[in-house]
Amino acid sequence: MEKRLQLFPHSTEIRRFDGVDRLAIGGCDLTQLAEEYGTPLYIYDQSALDAAVDEYRAALAAHYPGPAGITYAGKALINLAAARWAAGRGLWVDCTGAGELYIATRAGVPREQILVHGVNKSPADLWAAVETAGTIVVDNLTELERLAALADSVADFPQLWLRVRPGLAVDTHAFRQTGQDDSKFGMGFAEAVQAVTLCRTQGLPLTGVHFHQGSHFHDPQPIGPALDRVLELLAELRDASSWTPAYLSPGGGWGVPYHEDDLPHPSIDDYVAFLSARLAAGCAANDLPLPILHVEPGRSIVAVAGVALYRVGAVKRTSNRRWLLLDGGMADNIRPSLYGARYSALPVANPLRPALDPAWLGGPYCESGDVLIENLLMADVQPGELLAVPVSGAYHLMMSSNYNGALRPAVVWLQDGQAQLIQRRETVEDLVDRDEGMKG
Ligand code: LLP
Fold this sequence. Notes:
This protein is of the alpha/beta class. The chain has helices spanning about 1-5, 30-35, 45-65, 80-90, 95-105, 125-130, 140-150, 190-200, 225-240, 270-285, 300, 335-340, 430, and strands spanning about 15, 20-25, 30, 40-45, 70-75, 90-95, 115, 135-140, 160-165, 205-210, 245-250, 290-295, 305-315, 320-325, 345, 355-360, 370-380, 385-390, 410-415, 420-425. The chain folds into two domains: about 1-40 and about 305-430, Lyase, Ornithine Decarboxylase, Chain A, domain 1 (Beta Barrel), CATH 2.40.37.10; about 45-300, TIM Barrel, CATH 3.20.20. The protein is built from 13 helices and 20 strands. Bound molecules: ligand LLP.
């Protein structure tokens, strides 16, 4: 069980309250938080977010010989508090579409720190991006033509980067691969060459090239050949049009351990060291100037900072299984049902009790696939107990739903030993808030 504890934020400790050992994070007692805010509850520990950013910064400084920056991929978690935190840490914030862009601007993220992504950005997305972003990553030629048509409509037109598709896959779930040849994302190299010509003839501020191979990979090696191909493209572009990008972004996608069986996991430093060395060597080989390296992580910054708290309602035994039925599941975390993602959990009270028997942690929704965790060794947990699921910070709340009338959970932010509610739990009123009803 000690190994399971390593999946939680570094600030996690076991404290004795009322004669019981209880999990605490960032100096805050999880039992008290659950009592105050209810469950399911999502908790974010700012010290874990800060530590991940520090690790990226230190790794870039140690391994990359040129200038570097970090864009935080807001799709992993964006709300007013997270966007404000990211901007305050000097990160750029990657927004997908007008919705995330609205959140970032409402949070006060400065224009120059906003970068916009999106495949098939709508006219509204493009307009919002042109008005409020510092950088737009262009997905395709049609989009570029639409942007060119908007070029004279704002004084401070964003810089443009091209998203290219290197045509190689990384090892991750098929749903999360994006760099392969048949992917819907980005431009093939021939299109990228056309895009550069178009930008130059129209005088558009093209400053970068971007690629993203996929999400949640654990071995940086497959990024190498993709990076090499992109550098060959840049050499070709330099030769054909004497253009070289100031920025190069290899996207995000660095994975995290979700389960104790995933430990030990290679570090952010391992990933950045590989990327930096390969990029520096590739630039030297192609006689290209070192670009500003902009990494774009989401999960590896925010996943471990988030912990989900659930309360066990009923405990059921079937022929072969012990079911712990929780008050949350696929409505707040679709990842097990969508990708077969494998999580772990600890009881909040006496977390290091022996866990000798497997349990199936099921959610309350009307789907047999609503199983948060399968076959996990678990203590003798009783109805009414709290369970904490670590590594819940990325792509849970952002992919949550109101299935079966589920109310999206409350979100609490921990900083300097204090907890603050950053998002209230949805109410049943919210469920009908958009409804117009029927006349007559
Ligand atoms: N940049 C781009 C262009 C992306 O599409 C993504 C993720 C990222 C950066 C950040 O990737 P990260 O560092 O977080 O892996 N729902 C899936 C993940 C989908 C990722 C989509 N794009 C999951 O829950 O595993």
